[in-house]
Amino acid sequence: FFITYTSDALSAFSNTRDYNPIYAGNISSKKITLMFNVYWGNEYLEGILDVLDENDITTTFFIGGTWAERYPELLQNIYDHDHEIANHGYYHKDHASISYQRNTEEISNTHNLIKQKLGVEMDLFAPPSGSFSNTTLEIAESLGYKTIMWTRDTIDWRDQNANLIYERAIKNANGGDLILMHPTAKTLEALPRIIETLKNNGFILTTVTDNLK
Q1: What's the average model confidence in pLDDT over 55-77?
Q2: Among candidates 9, 4, 22, 19, which has minimal Cα distance to 153?
Q3: What is the pLDDT of residue 8?
Q4: pLDDT above 70 (res 2)
Q5: Of 45, 91, 49, nearest to 67 (Cα)?
């Protein structure tokens, strides 16, 4: 299955205050974002970066803290390709079930680590597995973050089927869509066709921050 929302629901999400979760960007635009959550999948990242380069696309990578600590060269490579770097928590915890302090540490420790390595100030946070509580939202807002969810989920981490990933990414595509992806083999296989189809349908593939304008 994939998750999608009605235009009324998306409008409501898009007009919420900054400390509420965001499920879509500018639904009156032709912008779509292919978002990548990164905690693993190193062997496919270079290929994904190549495909994005070939199609002149910059997008948003949500980076896990432990991954960034272990693979600083790959983190630098993503950044050097001009992609937006965002926060995906440090240890991939269930933010709905951890304490105020742990929520704070997950976000702030990742922020501080990536700032140290890249010199960037991040302001987008994607909670692992889409799990958050009111505490998570409050802490993210207090740290200067918007909490980013998704409009549709390719579920590529589970279903290793390029055609299925493609269909979930492009079916009923709308402006403002935030499409959740991961660096898997089948995602890499599906990516050129996803980009081609969306571009042929007049969509502009861009970063989350640009999509929110």
Answers
A1: 98
A2: 4
A3: 43
A4: no
A5: 91
Instruction: Give the pairing type, strands 204-205 and 84-87.
Output: unpaired
**Region label for 87, one of left (φ > 0), alpha (ψ between -120 and 50) or beta (otherwise):** beta
DSSP secondary structure letter of residue 20: S
Lowest-pLDDT range of 3-12, 53-62, 76-85, 103-112: 3-12
E strand intervals along the chain = 31-38, 60-63, 84-87, 124-125, 146-147, 152-153, 178-181, 204-205
Strands 124-125 and 146-147: parallel
Distance CA(124)–CA(153), nearest Å, equals: 18
Q: What is the pLDDT of residue 81?
A: 98
Mean pLDDT of 158-172: 97
How far is C-alpha 40 from the geometric centre of its chain's CA atoms? 14
**CA-CA distance, 209 to 83, in Å (whole number)?**
11
Q: Let me know how long the chain is.
A: 213
Tell me the whole-structure pTM to 2 decimals.
Answer: 0.90
The position carrying tokens 């898009």 is 14
Q: Which of 199, 204, 164 is nearest to 181 (CA)?
A: 164
- Please count the other Cβ atoms lying within 10 Å of the Cβ belonging to residue 3: 14
| CA distances, 65 to each of 74, 107, 131, 139, 190 (Å) | 13, 9, 17, 17, 27
Count of Cβ atoms closer than 10 Å to residue 109 Cβ: 17
Q: In which band, very low, low, confident or very high, does the pLDDT at 19 lie, cut at 50, 70 and 90? A: confident
> What pLDDT is stored for residue 86 in this prediction?
98
